[in-house]
């Protein structure tokens, strides 16, 4: 056989880059039999492509080309023999068949180091047909629905340029991840879709979320037990329930939450803005070193809200107190409009009053029928600096 320069090119490139940028071999799901016909379940083809990319010495790239690929629940498991890129150029479509709804995940990545998920494609969750199962108040057959993408024990990784539409439950769920960056992601679900958190983080550290748009029916970002060093920058939230730390303290042996920064972000028409919520009664833990900085809000219902009596549905015990200590929390340069009179509500626990709460340059206007914008503080030790609207809390 004649060997031309072009035959040798891939080899030359891989030799040239071998020690610094290994040339990733591409594993196209279509070569494994995946069919973009919106009918065939493609899990087997996807798993075979994943296994080959993951097993390849030096790493590999799974490619999902243009087209819409039906996919049942699927788990991509490591550890792998090198970095793996999961490139979604087309769309992945979840089942809209109710008999296939009930799993705790749709697409899961687990035990992987150096994973990249990108490609500009779409995750179509088809939540519309499923959301009523989320509502236990009206549906006795309510069941937990799957998150769109779960990342469990994923480290040194990034997710970018992906769009998640109408998830059945949380869009992106991170558990036990470390050093994982999310950027240029778009998350879209209706304002009234239940439990469709944008990004839900638990037990994870060094997570950065940047330049991302989240419009959904529940929290845009929720940060739970055991999360450390989480930064949210340049995120637009709305509609949705805002940026939330918690709820904390519901189960026993919860871990502390510390080192949270939410900055340079906007909230439009959300139910809450910047919120820390803990159950009462609750187990003991600590939420500390939290900074909310440079936040613009438009028509947000509870702009600044620490709620240590979190109880979304009865029965609620108004006498019970939370044991989650909230300490060293700064709200700085928070400005815009509130859609309720109480733009600042800091309601802490009688057992463990909040300590070191700082309000710096707050300017939140209210122009509704309830009267002047106001603040309310309970069991708080803290200070305010610079102009304050509303004033009078600390
Ligand atoms: C994530 O972003 C941080 C800050 O920009 C950077 O230091 C870190 O290397 C990034 N991690 C990955 C896995 O890209
Ligand atoms: C704030 O976020 C926007 C994107 O939402 C970005 O364009 C801008 O550069 C960010 N500014 C700073 C100071 O980080
Ligand atoms: C959580 O915070 C409490 C109070 O500061 C501290 O005593 C405890 O050691 C912390 N737990 C962990 C696992 O760091
Ligand atoms: C308070 O938290 C900030 C981060 O938001 C941190 O830099 C600072 O050291 C903390 N202060 C104390 C006294 O722990």
Features:
single chain, 394 residues, mainly beta, Pectate Lyase C-like, 26-stranded parallel β-sheet, 26 strands, 7% helix, binds 2-acetamido-2-deoxy-beta-D-glucopyranose
* Mean pLDDT across all amino acids: 93
Order of helices and strands: HEHEEEEEEEEEEEEEEEEEEEEEEEEE
Number of DSSP strand runs: 26
Count of all domains:
2
Instruction: State the helix count.
Output: 2
Runs in which pLDDT lies below 50 for 5 or more consecutive residues are 8-21
Estimated helix fraction: under 10%
CATH classification, class level of the largest domain: Mainly Beta
Classify the fold: give the CATH topology of the largest domain: Pectate Lyase C-like
**What Rg is obtained from the alpha carbons, in whole angstroms?**
23 Å
CATH architecture field of the largest domain: 3 Solenoid
Ions, cofactors and other ligands present here are:
2-acetamido-2-deoxy-beta-D-glucopyranose
Class from helix and strand fractions: mainly beta
How much of the sequence lies in strands comes to over 45%
Shape: elongated
Terminal Cα span: 82 Å
Biggest beta-sheet profile:
26 strands, parallel
Write out the CATH superfamily name of the largest domain.
Answer: Single-stranded right-handed beta-helix, Pectin lyase-like
